[in-house]
Design a protein that fits this description.
The protein has 17 helices and three strands. The protein has two domains: 119 residues, no CATH class; 247 residues, no CATH class. The protein is globular and about 75 Å long. By secondary structure, the protein is mainly α. A three-stranded mixed beta sheet has the order 1-3-2, sandwiched between helices.
Length: 376
């Protein structure tokens, strides 16, 4: 007579082929060279191109509705499971079956996510494409010099932008201009060629208030979905960042760097200014954080006061408008959502988690140094 364990093993729907395939994908992802040479050009790029070609024809953000349907389905499934918990006929076999189905589903999600997007986190650094030597750390003095340099650039660039130009810069116009900027910069860097645009305004911007995001890439529809209520001066950098994700730059550091390159090389003052504003925020935060760690409150306040005195009033007003927008949204964020996203980034080989956004400073230093040595 068969044991209960053997009988259960025969009844449970273990999907061993799926587990084997997941193991193969995991092993494949351990090689940056394999990812860059085979997955990126022969799997990701064709899939993402096709997805953008399809979703780009739609006037709405399909990816948001897909996530909404998935969430509703999961809630319904959870309710059904909870309802059966106290049912008298529920046996150990039932819970074993539920466990195996959940595990099968997780493995399936892992496979799909990796094929559609996740393996990009393991590809080679784009430093090779840009021929950069990226330093491992930045110093406080480097951040101070970078901040001062950016203050000068912000003041000069903002003086060349009319208020009417900013007021006339609507969401759809900046989307079109972002594509133009990529087309222009790709003449210098062909690997930044961007085709089949699928850039969408978020239908549910309030989700960003609760989950703490300004935009996101939807890997299963190929869409870059951006909140339309963002301050105008943050849109060029944010859109270019999401377009970088669509090209396969999964790391937040890399996507930020590509957006920085687009802004730096752009001939449009609005895109230059947006990149300068963003990078200055990172540089000043990095410097102040370094000062705070050693407990020098006097120097902390001295740097803030000096920077405010050097920044032109109109740039200060622009920064205040941006800061006020995010301050108003701060209290709406669901507790733990940022920690969850932080853990997601760490799972995907970004050791610094959400702080990896600031790592663009290392790339910016390397890129600026190269331009000084080899001016165009």
């Amino acid at each position: 007579m068969m044991s209960e364990a053997t009988n259960l093993g025969q009844k449970l729907p273990w999907n061993y082929k799926r587990y084997l395939f997941a193991l193969i994908i995991f092993s494949f992802g351990c090689s940056k060279q394999l990812i860059s040479n085979y997955y990126l050009p022969f799997v990701y790029k064709p899939i993402s191109f096709l997805l953008r070609a399809i979703s780009g024809k739609l006037d709405f953000a399909l990816g948001e509705w897909a996530y909404l349907i998935i969430c509703i389905s999961l809630i319904i499934s959870l309710i059904n499971v909870v309802r059966k918990i106290h049912a008298p006929f529920i046996s150990r076999t039932y819970w074993n079956l539920i466990f195996v189905k959940i595990l099968n589903g997780i493995v399936k999600l892992y496979i799909v996510f990796q094929l559609f997007w996740g393996l990009n986190y393991q590809k080679q650094s784009p430093a090779n494409d840009f021929q950069l030597k990226v330093p491992g750390i930045y110093t406080e003095s480097q951040m101070d010099s970078l901040s001062l340099q950016l203050i000068q650039q912000m003041n000069q660039t903002r003086a060349s932008i009319r208020d009417s130009t900013i007021e006339a810069s609507r969401f759809n116009l900046i989307l079109e201009q972002s594509q133009q900027q990529y087309a222009q910069v790709s003449k210098q860097y062909p690997f930044l060629e961007y085709h089949q645009p699928s850039l969408k305004k978020s239908a549910f911007p309030a989700w960003g208030d609760y989950l703490g995001y300004t935009a996101f890439y939807q890997p299963f529809t190929g869409e870059a979905i951006i909140r339309g209520d963002l301050p105008v001066l943050t849109l060029p950098f944010t859109i270019c960042h999401e377009m970088a994700h669509q090209l396969g730059y999964a790391s937040e550091t890399e996507a930020n760097f590509i957006a920085f390159v687009i802004g730096t090389e752009s001939k449009d003052p609005l895109f230059q200014y947006a990149a300068q504003l963003q990078l200055f925020t990172y540089a000043q935060q990095a410097q102040l954080w370094s000062i705070a760690k050693r407990g020098d409150s006097l120097q902390f306040q001295k740097v803030i006061t000096r920077n405010k005195q050097l920044i032109s009033p109109i740039v200060l007003a622009d920064r205040k408008q941006i800061r006020d927008f995010f301050t108003r949204k701060q209290d709406l964020q669901i507790p733990g959502s940022m920690q969850l996203y932080n853990q997601f980034l760490k799972w995907n080989k970004q050791a610094n988690g959400v702080e990896s956004y600031n790592d663009v400073l290392l790339w910016a230093l390397a890129y600026t140094h190269k331009k000084i040595l080899r001016p165009n």
